[in-house]
Amino acid sequence: MIEVRNVAKDFTLHNQGGTVLRVMEGANLSVAPGECIALTGASGAGKSTLMRMIWGNYRTDHGMIRVGGTEVSGAEPRRIIALRRATLGYVSQFLRVVPRVPTLRVVAEPLLSLGVPEKRAEARAAELLTRLRIGESLLGLSPTTFSGGEQQRVNIARGFIHPYPALLLDEPTASLDAQNRETVLHLIEEAKARGAAIIGIFHDEAARERLCDRVIDVTAFTPERIG
Amino acid sequence: MALTEALEETARHAAPDDAAPDAAPDQAPATPLLRVKGVTKMYGGRIGCAAVSFDLWPGEVLGIVGESGSGKSTLLGCLSGQLRPDAGEVIFDTSAQGPVDTLKLAEPQRRLLARTDWAFVHQNPRDGLRMGVSAGGNVGERLMATGARHYGRIRASAEDWLGRVEIDPTRIDDRPRQFSGGMQQRLQIARNLVSGPRLVFMDEPTGGLDVSVQARLLDLLRGLVRDMGLSAVLVTHDLAVVRLLADRLMVMKGGRVVEAGLTDQVLDDPQHAYTQLLVSSVLQV
Ligand SMILES: Nc1ncnc2c1ncn2[C@@H]1O[C@H](COP(=O)(O)OP(=O)(O)OP(=O)(O)O)[C@@H](O)[C@H]1O
Ligand SMILES: Nc1ncnc2c1ncn2[C@@H]1O[C@H](COP(=O)(O)OP(=O)(O)OP(=O)(O)O)[C@@H](O)[C@H]1O
Ligand SMILES: [Mg+2]
Ligand SMILES: [Mg+2]
Q1: ipTM over 0.95
Q2: pTM for this model (two decimals)
Q3: Chain A residues with CB inside 8 Å of B17's CB?
Q4: B281 touching chain A per CB within 8 A
Q5: Model pLDDT for residues A166-222, shown as the tens digit of each residue
Q6: How far from B174 is each of B14, B137, B154, B179, B184, CA to CA, in Å?
Q7: Best mutation site among B39, B40, B41, B43 for ligand 2 pocket (most ligand atoms within 8 Å of CB)
């Protein structure tokens, strides 16, 4: 479902004398439906970089990345937009929303953009938020003023409201208490069970143990001179 | 219904093709709504915009950013038929005749297109509204221009649209001057969208507004784009606005496009020196 073949990444810092930083090379991985893999490696090893290249907000100039039937590397923007709408979900570390939009709408949005009627989309959003213990009194408020853990759960709800066949999770259990962590682990297990291909970054070792079929240490893809 | 069942039902409803994990590439429309090729506009010896080319697909929002004087408004003027470019093609997929080069259309035909298929939201609501005409009149006028004659229906439609842009419909007979800046901007949007256009041009639509009013307007525009399947070309200085509203982004400098791509790719992994400077000069977008 997700395939990374011989990928390398350079950053050219034009405003620092055009320095070219090679931060990754020879990256390979492949994730089957129903499989969950963890990316590990020290800070700066390239976990987020690899995840962003799969999501498509970092460009892939060397090698090939494919998600489902879409070749992300070199894809026209509209292909990536379509991929993100129906197939590829992403729970990032930070919530980015239009200010003043109520939480319920923020979470329902992915379904609305797939054409699900508003009532049904909002009912699903409410159901999922309730499961994640976001109180009813918060649903009508914008998440911009929520606590870190609450924002995190809103982000998770948004990433799980549609059954994406492929999911990227960047520290999904960070800043959650034990109860909410357990709920999120359940959501991930359910996604696996329905056949989602999942790539996660988990500093939470116990979560990694429980969820992941394989661990990929991205240090293997870090060029010598950086590591 | 259990949550997983509910979600699976959504999957069937919304994206039947996803059942097989390695299904065909995700569906995307087949014909661009707008194809822009080599559009150039000179002001005497000075470049307004030069050799601009892009395709805009149905349902997409294209953001255009760049410093003051980089040619954003000039380009928008050329695309929307308000300015005559010196070179290039602007091919629009009309509902009546399919793709036509709008620059080759006779003036009356182009004006008809501008009233039916296009909308233009100006930075200053005064440029897009008739200040001496009531709110209802401003909205109704565009319907009449596209052939509506039945007074009751026009008024009902105007009331409906005032409601959609969150203006109390009881203020239908007030003049735009009696409205705040944010309300005027929302009225301008209602006036433009009432006739069901397929393509909206916006030049700094949230420019003069304070941040919280801007946010409401952004949310409104996003909902309208989604629900009506609109495409839009949005000019703005504000990178946070494009991040939230635009699918794709074009960066202009000196009249030329220096970088274009998926919005978050251009902002998170900018390739061009100028874009890197632009992105690094704002705190966090
Ligand atoms: N936009 C960017 N421009 C320049 N360099 C970048 C950019 N993004 C990442 N890098 C560099 O790429 C390398 C990998 O960074 P990355 O963020 O992927 O690490 P990580 O493994 O996710 O670390 P952490 O655990 O701290 O989040 C680092 O050297 C980083 O400085
Ligand atoms: N009517 C005109 N006559 C002569 N030069 C013009 C005219 N309109 C614009 N220009 C010039 O063309 C260039 C592009 O202007 P334009 O208004 O398109 O910029 P812009 O990107 O919209 O800037 P801003 O962000 O300030 O609105 C500028 O150098 C401007 O001075
Ligand atoms: Mg990281
Ligand atoms: Mg301008």
Answers
A1: no
A2: 0.89
A3: 86
A4: no
A5: 999 999 998 899 999 999 999 999 999 999 999 999 999 999 999 999 999 999 999
A6: 43, 10, 17, 8, 11
A7: B43
